[in-house]
Amino acid sequence: MPAVAEPLIVWILNGSATVEERDIGGDWLASDVHAGDFFLTDSDEPYELRWRSHDGAPFEVMHLHLGLPLLERAMQEVRGTAGRPVLRDVSGIHDPGLGPLIETLAHEISERAQPSALLLESVAQAAAIHLVRGYLDPGRTGVRRRSAIPAYRLRRVTELMQQALADAFDLGLYARTAEMSAAHFSRQFKRSTGLSPSQYFIRLRIAAARRLLRETSRSIISIGMEVGYSSPSHFAQVFRRETGVSPGAYRDR
């Protein structure tokens, strides 16, 4: 999970699962969650998350990033103070007051051909008020560092990377997409994901190669070319470095 400028709500829409979280390289913390539970993260560091659904049933979640202007208005109204509120992190809890608001947002977005912008903004504002009233973190007062890339820009960049795996890595293109200078983008991207842009791009390439090795019978050479490696030896070298095994050994597992 990347660090982003906005607080993140992960809402469990359907199913149940054991969800584990940890700081990068830290110890795993497990929570058993069901539909209607949620996670709230307001961290300026990336973290790792994994889950296993109970009984193999479908497990569906919604990610909701609350815009900073929304939260700042809520802070002004609830506390009478200007600035960005800092929220405490919670894992796998149930909140009967927040639930109807999130479910209204999810229904409007997924069930309406033309969602009402006015309704979405109103419900999101109500959710921001609820969070400021109940989830302010007294232990982290003051201005939170805003060093991460806003979620919508980060998503725009990673989706562009995903679409261009066969192309050469282009730092300038991704920096322009994020509306930043190349140097600033590189720092912010690593702050958000824990990886440099080029490392993240390589991870995307290898993830695609692993999927193709598992799910198709295509030759290793053609798979390497599809993910941007014209040299079979270079592809094998990078694949082994990222996974610990050669492409052939990975396919034979």
Number of strands: 7
Low-confidence sequence ranges = none
The proportion of strand residues reads: 15-25%
Order of helices and strands, N to C? EEEEEEHEHHHHHHHHH
Shape: globular
Major sheet: arrangement of strands: 6-1-4-7
Assembly category: single chain
Overall structural class, as computed from helix and strand content, comes to: alpha+beta
* Largest sheet geometry: 4 strands, antiparallel
Percent helix, as a range, is 40-55%
CA-atom Rg in angstroms: 21 Å
Question: Termini, distance in Å?
Answer: 28 Å
Number of distinct helices: 10
Question: What number is the mean pLDDT?
Answer: 89
SSE layout and pairings?
Blueprint: E1 8-14, E2 16-23, E3 29-34, E4 37-41, E5 47-53, E6 60-65, H1 68-79, E7 90-94, H2 99-111, H3 117-134, H4 151-163, H5 171-177, H6 182-193, H7 197-215, H8 220-226, H9 232-243, H10 247-252
Antiparallel strand pairs: 1-4, 1-6, 2-3, 2-5, 4-7
Helix pairs in contact: 1-3, 2-3, 5-6
What tags apply to this protein structure?
253 residues; alpha+beta; four-stranded antiparallel beta sheet; three-stranded antiparallel beta sheet
Q: What does this entry look like structurally?
A:
- The chain is α+β, with helices and mostly antiparallel strands and 253 residues long.
- It contains 10 helices and 7 strands.
- The chain has a 4-stranded antiparallel β-sheet, covered by helices on one side. A 3-stranded antiparallel β-sheet has the order 3-2-5, with no helix packed on it.
- β2 and β3 form a beta hairpin.
- The two termini are 28 Å apart.
